[in-house]
Amino acid sequence: MENTSVKIAEYLLQIKAIKLQPSNPFTWASGWKSPIYCDNRKTLSYPEIRSYISSSFARLISEKYKDADLIAGVATGAIAHGVLTAEKLRLPFVYVRSGAKDHGLGNQIEGYFEAGQRAVVVEDLISTGNSSLSAVKALRDAGCEVLGMTAIFTYEFKKAADSFAEEKCILDTLSNYTTLIDTALKTGYITQADMETLKEWRMNPSEWGKDK
Questions:
Q1: In-domain check, residue 203
Q2: What global pTM score does this model have?
Q3: What range defines the domain where residue 137 resides?
Q4: pLDDT of residue 29
Q5: Secondary structure percentages of the chain, helix, strand, coil, to 5
Q6: Can you give the CATH number for the domain in which 149 is found?
């Protein structure tokens, strides 16, 4: 999957789905200051890229999770990617909300499924892992067996790795932070000084930039 990781990093940089601004940091919803912002929803606007992503997901799942009989997308960012992947695999699809609806049927999982089905979860982005793992918990609580999760990109935070290990959930990603910044440096998207800033941020993202 190494070539896939580099190619997706190149795609994300090419369409500015990932923006790197070490000298002008973004502020995340969590309040964290960050030199990077990732919006994988932009990939859906490019047929070649969205097709490559869903084909990569489908290949990974067919090779690693041969027993999968359900694809579950995490709302909202991974619904479309999950549908495209399920279509390639000819498998049923559901999506998982961040919480149960407060009206109508009160569903958290939308679509038809049965207890005992073996699900692979599709996600667009892994940061701390909290929202992604809440989808895993919802599926397990509903009686599904979660074989693992696949995502387009991960920031590779230790907190996320620890959380997935604690929940005993396998995580595979098509690309990652290390590959991204290496690719950005090689293509001249960032400087060596930017590279050092980006490495420093990932070591302690919750505290980075607070003194600036």
A1: no
A2: 0.93
A3: 2-196
A4: 82
A5: 45, 20, 35
A6: 3.40.50.2020
